[in-house]
Amino acid sequence: MNQTIILLLSYIDICIILGFYMYSRKVKKLIGFHLGMNISMVMGGMAALLFGVLLILQFPFHFTFITLISTVIGLLVGAAFGLLIDYQTFVTGITNGIIVGLMAPMIGTVIEIPILFITFIHVLFACCIFVIFISIKRS
C-alpha cells in the first residue's frame, strides 16, 4: 500500500481522536458512567486497532515494536478518555486499549486486501463516533 496514504490516514485518525477528546471534555457533564465506559473502550480499542494495522502495513517486519507502539497508543487513548469520567472507566479504557493493541498487529499481518480492510475499520470508526455523539446528545 502507498506510504503517503498510510501516513495521511494516521494523521486524520490523530486529528479525529483529538477533536473528539476535546468535544468529550467540553460536554463531560452530560456523560454518564455507562456511556463513559463505552466511550473509553471504543476510543482506546479503535485507536489501537487503527494504528496497529496501519503501522504494520507501513513497517511489515517490525512486529515487536509495532505491537508495543499500538499497545501504548491504545492504553493512552483509553486512559485519557477514561479519566474524563472516573477511576473504573479509566481502568476499563486501559484494559481494552492493551488487549486490542496486542491483537491489532496480528490482524494487520494476515489481511489479504489491505485497502478494503482499512476502509472497513475507518468506516466502523466513523460509525462508532457518530453513535457516541448521538448518545451524548440524548443523555
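(the above was protein one; protein two follows)
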Amino acid sequence: MGPGMPPPKRGGGGALIAALLGGGLVIIVIIGVVVFALAASSGKSPEEKLATAATGLDSARAVGLKGTFGGSETLTGELNVTKGGRAMGPVTWGGNNVTLLSADGKLFVKADKAYWEREISSADDQFYLKSGEQWGRLGDDELDLDFKTQLTPAALAAKVRLAKTSSVKPIETTWQGKKALKFSTFASTIYITDEDDAQLMRYEATTPRVTLDVTPKDAGDASSLISDMRTNMGELKDSFNGSARPSVDEWKKGGCNGNSGCTVEAKIRPPYDVEKPVTVDVRFRITAGTLTGRDLGNCTTRITITGSDSQWASCRVTSGAWTSWAKSTGGTFYKHAEYKVIGATPAEVQALQNGLDSE
C-alpha cells in the first residue's frame, strides 16, 4: 500500500467557519450601518419642522391663545380665535375679569354692574344696568388689536414661515416640559415642538405686542368653541352700547297741565359715529322744583333712528307722585332724558351668527 493521504488539518474547518462568521459579522455590521443611516436621514431639519408647524396652522379651524395681548390696552387671559378672525374668551382687562367677544368688526364685553358703572362715564342714570353680568358693546377703537389680520391660524402660520428667513440659528430648548426649537427674528420669537410632527407652542411679538402660548384646535374642539360662540352671540339681543351718547336736541312744550299725568316729548339726536339704523330706549324722568328735586315718575319708549337727523320720542308719565304733587303744590318741574342704546339689533345678532357658518 502506498503511503496514506495526510489527514486534513483541523484548523481548515475552523478557518472556514471563522471566515463565515467573519462574513456574517461583516454583513451584520453593514446592515446596522444601513439601518442607522436610514433612521438618521428620516429626521427633519429645523427648517422643515418649522414648515410643518406652519402647514398645521393653515389647516386649523381655530387656535387657543393664552397669555398677554398688548396694544393701547392690555389683556391677560385665554382667547380662542377662529380662522375667520372671531375671538372669544375670559380675560382680565384693566384689572376687571370680563368675557370678550370680537366678531365682524364689533367688540362686546360681558361684565358685572360695577365694571359698567366705571366704564360708562356719564352723569345720566344707567337705568338699564342690573345686578349680575351683562353684555355691552364698546367702540371699535377701545382695543388696539386686530384678531383677523394678526392672530388667526393663517396669520400665525405666516409668522412661523417668516421665522425661516432669520439668519439666527434656532436654539434647542424646552417649553412647558417639552423639547422645543426657539426661532428669533427682529420682530418675534417662536417656539415649536422639536419633533417631526412639529406644532407652534408659543408666539411672542412686538407688533402686535403679545406673549402667548398657542394651541391649534382639532376639528372637535373647534366645533365646540364655535357652538359656544354662537350661543353667546344670541345673548347680545339684550346688550347695550356702552360708548354711545345720544342727547336731546329739542324739548316739546306742553302736555303736562293735568294732574292725571304728563306727556313728555323730545327730539333725540343720534349718537355720534354709530352704525345706522340705531335703536334707543329713551327714559323720560320728571323732578319737582329743581334738577335734583323729588322724583315725580318716569316712562320709557323705544325709537329707531335710521339716519343722521334727530327723531322725536314721547311717552306719558303717570304716577302717584305726579298726581299728588300736581294736586297739592304744582309749580316748576324739570324733564330729564336717559338712554339705553341697543348694542345689537335682532338683524345684527342674526348676521353675527350667520357669519359662523363660514368657520
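Reviewer note on protein two: The chain has eight helices and 18 strands.
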